[in-house]
Write a structure and sequence with these properties.
Elements lengths: L2 H14 L3 H12 L3 H8 L10 E4 L9 H17 L11 E6 L5 H14 L3 E4 L6 H11 L3 E5 L8 E8 L9 H10 L15 E2 L3 H9 L14 E4 L6 H11 L5 E2 L25 H10 L3 E5 L6 E7 L2 E4 L2 H14 L5 E5 L5 H9 L3 E4 L3 H4 L5 E6 L3 E3 L10 H17 L4 H12 L1 E10 L4 H12 L4 E2 L2 E8 L13 E5 L2 E7 L5 E10 L7 H23 L2
Parallel strand pairs: 2-3, 2-4, 3-6, 7-8, 7-9, 12-13, 12-14
Antiparallel strand pairs: 1-5, 4-5, 9-10, 10-11, 14-15, 16-21, 17-18, 18-19, 19-20, 20-21
């Protein structure tokens, strides 16, 4: 775009921008002639997809800001009105709106409520920053036609996002995402979007109370409630709700990582507010060495994910998402759960073996709870990125609060038997084979590097990784018999599996690795783990070379 046209576009945006902060930012760029800064903000638009919107805060269509949110809300409102209400009458549909404690989250929530009200829909906003699963619960609980959660989950402090649910309580999937995106694109000017200053409802704690009451369904009535925990909210919104849920359940009050307990949009103690990131759990581990609990639990900032750590020898270590996923599945099977167990294709195949042994239906889906939550007859779903749906009748999404409850119940039961979560993992390895997983994740500045790596793997797919022959190579962009198309590659090896895909929410290329090593007895576990570790390291190296990353 020529400089003059770029400046004209920025000036037109500035004239409509309702936010003094981004107006000041953009005016400064225009006044100083910072064409590079302007181009970075006006080189396109944030794309609305199945993850909604997510991006860096700032001025312009390539950033998250009030103008972008107002357009997104207007597009969603137009889509909802075209598709009518679920009641088959003239009742205006209800849209429930939640938000986290990030910068601008409340502003974006109130803008959404104003747009929905101006469009003739009903809007209700949760009364304070609350976990994403509370919003997902509220949609079904209140009979809403849609829900919006303003959150960037575990992204860096500079980001925010806009997640959309429809009336079934699940996140949007195609074709709804493209249809909403088309309605957003049709919003020519903010001056055409009515935004009254009142007319929407601010919900009281009744919805939160109902969510907490629903958590009773997660636990067995007569289960032990003795496990002691250390808990970190990772500077997010999980603390008050988790503490209330634990108190209601009768668990000992968790020991808090005080430095990370309260919401702080700057996330001052971590480089990335994600329990999976190196260093993010250091303060929790320090507190665990001091408090000597049975379990360490962490939520991400919007509390839809749950991480856990256990004592392993002399110190503490994080459990992988796949390990927690298998533990919760085994616990539910032992409790006599019925229904379908489901996971995404990037998660460990151990879940399928657990379900098969129990005679339960099992399904694989594409990545994301937008797909897992739609599995017919779902009883339990999980994804390796610390997401667990343990009560799909209450929340059709991942829920870090209820997952923490169920995991603490399991730890309590094992404690009563003189055992630990690691003992149960050993049992599962002997029964089903040692399923070891790892991830090769590459964060990039230039998104072209991700496209280049995917193209290279498609053009020259590996025939062998870590000395294991590739017996099957699937380009998932073509779809499969059971999966719709997605940008990904899946390799099946003798005793291993690899899935490669671009991240849907971060500038990352992600490679998900799994090896399965048979184990006859518990005495064979150390050797099996050593073999699995060596294989995973070699697969990482060979895959990195094949992808050119």
């Amino acid at each position: 775009m020529q400089d003059d046209a770029l400046i004209a576009q920025a000036q037109a945006w500035l004239a409509e921008d309702p936010d003094p902060d981004t107006r000041e930012e953009l005016a400064r760029l225009i006044d100083t002639g910072d064409h590079t800064g302007i181009a970075a903000r006006f080189s396109g638009t944030l794309q609305f997809g199945t993850a909604g919107l997510r991006g860096e805060l700032g001025a312009g269509p390539m950033r998250m800001n009030r103008s972008v949110v107002i357009r997104a809300a207007a597009g969603l409102a137009a889509y909802l009105k075209k598709h009518g209400t679920p009641h088959g009458d003239d009742t205006a549909g209800l849209v429930v709106i939640g938000y986290d404690a990030r910068h601008k989250s409340r502003d974006f929530a109130e803008d959404t409520a104003a747009v929905m009200t101006g469009a003739g829909l009903r809007a209700a906003v949760l009364n304070r920053p609350l976990p994403t699963p509370v919003l997902a619960f509220a949609i079904r609980h209140l009979g809403a036609v849609a829900g919006v959660e303003v959150t960037a989950s575990h992204n860096p402090p500079r980001d925010n996002g806009y997640k959309v649910y429809l009336g079934d309580g699940s996140q949007i999937v195609p074709p709804a995402d493209a249809e909403i995106a088309a309605e957003i694109e049709a919003v020519a000017s903010l001056t055409t979007v009515p935004r009254p200053t009142e007319g929407w409802e601010t919900l009281d704690d009744t919805v939160l109370d109902a969510y907490l009451a629903r958590t009773d369904a997660v636990l067995s009535e007569d289960s032990p409630r003795t496990a002691r925990t250390v808990y970190t909210a990772m500077h997010g919104v999980g603390k008050d709700v988790l503490l209330a849920a634990f108190e209601r359940a009768g668990f000992p009050r968790p020991v808090l990582v005080t430095e990370q307990a309260d919401p702080d949009p700057e996330f001052p103690t971590v480089a990335f507010p994600n329990p999976e990131e190196p260093g993010a759990m250091d303060l929790a581990f320090a507190k665990a060495r001091e408090a000597d609990p049975d379990l360490v639990i962490a939520n991400d900032p919007d509390a839809d994910r749950c991480a856990a750590a256990v004592r392993d020898g002399a110190d503490w270590r994080m459990l992988r998402g796949d390990e927690v996923g298998a533990l919760l599945a085994a616990h539910l099977v032992r409790r006599g759960a019925t229904g379908t167990f489901a996971e995404s294709i990037v998660s460990s195949s151990l879940l399928g073996r657990i379900a098969g042994k129990a005679g339960l239906p099992y399904e694989e889906t594409l990545t994301g709870f937008k797909w897992i939550a739609r599995v017919e007859g779902l009883r339990y779903g999980y994804e390796e990125a610390l997401g667990y749906c343990v009560d799909p009748d209450g929340v059709r999404d991942k829920d870090g609060i209820t997952a923490a409850l169920l995991l603490t119940e399991l730890a309590s039961g094992l404690k009563a038997e003189g055992r630990t979560l690691l003992d149960l993992l050993d049992d599962l390895a002997v029964e089903h084979g040692l399923h070891a997983t790892d991830q090769l994740s590459v964060r990039v500045q230039d998104l072209g590097l991700i496209a280049s790596a995917m193209r290279r793997l498609r053009d020259r797919p590996p025939t062998e990784l870590a000395g294991l022959r590739v017996t099957g190579a699937e380009d998932l962009s073509r779809g499969t018999r059971t999966l719709p198309p997605t940008d990904g590659l899946r390799y099946t090896l003798d005793g291993a599996r690899v899935v490669v895909r671009p991240s849907g929410t971060e500038p990352k290329l992600k490679c998900y690795l799994e090896v399965v090593v048979p184990v006859a007895t518990r005495t064979g576990l150390p050797e099996a783990r050593a073999k699995a570790t060596a294989l995973l390291a070699r697969i990482k190296q060979d895959l990195s070379e094949a992808a050119g990353i």
